[in-house]
Amino acid sequence: MGKGGMSDGDHADRCCGEAINGDVQQENMAAWLLGVKNLKIQPYKLPNLGPHDVRVRLKAVGICGSDVHHFKNMRCVDFIVKEPMVIGHECAGIIEEVGSQVEDLVPGDRVALEPGISCKRCNLCKQGRYNLCRKMKFFGSPPNNGCLANQVVHPGDLCFKLPDNVSLEEGAMCEPLSVGIHACRRANVCQETNVLVVGAGPIGLVTLLAARAFGAPRIVIADVNDERLLIAKSLGADEVVKVSTNIEDVAEEVAKIQKVLENGVDVTFDCAGFNKTITTALSATRPGGKVCLVGMGQREMTLPLATREIDVIGIFRYQNTWPLCLEFLRSGKIDVKPLITHRFGFSQKEVEEAFETSARGGNAIKVMFNL
């Protein structure tokens, strides 16, 4: 866990100066991914502030599983890092400057940032499915720079004011929480939906929290890791089921799952994305139910033929979720604070340690930077 005191990044904050839009500001520094497991804090020149943009000083940035994939492999599924890139996309901060046409934000506002900038002109954007926009510019998804930096410039309409009782760290957690909320919307989770979540990593756990907030009366979560299952239980899972990585164990494990969900599994969320997990999901779900693919553990999967009219649906990121995330956090319907297990400052040493901690997994659920 990160130590207290002034980090190297803080020192850079206080000692380096440059003129930005007429004001004296510290040189903007960011964590650049230069190669496999090679992150360096280096200067990051911001683009000019457009009329609809805001400049945000980041205060909380989380590490996502996709960030770890980029860190370890220089790719996540089909997104390949081919040149140095600022990493990170889960973030919240404080408005420092607003463009001339920004009317609903002022300097000093605390905001959570939605990290994807769509074109707003294609058919998918016009239909409201902007998360599928082919021209999407997404923080920290190559070739686009991310948000593990002192400051970023971002469209004002993608910055959402935090309620007074919601912290900046919780604001940064809106990004992973949005995945769970979008999955629950896609699967139509409601008060009559019995849910199985396969995978108790960060995304499986936020999907558990979202399903409960949507009213699911009974939720079971399955994972290979006892520690993660204990966390899932503490977050409100009704039952947990220990499973293996051996696909030959599916029938036995499905029998356990169906025993604890006596009325059947209406919706299964595969939050891991492997041959074994999707086979478990399809086998455990009742006839006429739904399986929602959330995790992307494998680029390609082999699926068993489903003959029971199970709807298989996919999700990619999210759409129009930040207002609901913030309302769930404000009202206390969802509490993401227990998911934040490790905190680090913004120095070269701490950035390296934070990513190694997140990559190891184990008891690290959400690793958070405090800038």
From TrEMBL:
Matches recorded under SUPFAM superfamilies: GroES-like, NAD(P)-binding Rossmann-fold domains
Q: Which InterPro entries match?
A: ADH-like_C (IPR013149), ADH-like_N (IPR013154), ADH_Zn_CS (IPR002328), ER (IPR020843), GroES-like_sf (IPR011032), NAD(P)-bd_dom_sf (IPR036291), SDH-like (IPR045306)
Query: What cofactors does this protein use?
Result: Zn(2+)
Top-level taxonomic group: Eukaryota
Give this protein's Gene Ontology molecular function annotations. oxidoreductase activity, acting on the CH-OH group of donors, NAD or NADP as acceptor; zinc ion binding
- In what residue span(s) does the Enoyl reductase (ER) domain sit? 35-369
Report the Gene3D superfamilies cross-referenced here: Medium-chain alcohol dehydrogenases, catalytic domain (3.90.180.10), NAD(P)-binding Rossmann-like Domain (3.40.50.720)
The alphabetical list of record keywords is: Metal-binding, NAD, Oxidoreductase, Zinc
Q: Which family does it belong to?
A: Belongs to the zinc-containing alcohol dehydrogenase family.
Q: What is this protein called?
A: Enoyl reductase (ER) domain-containing protein
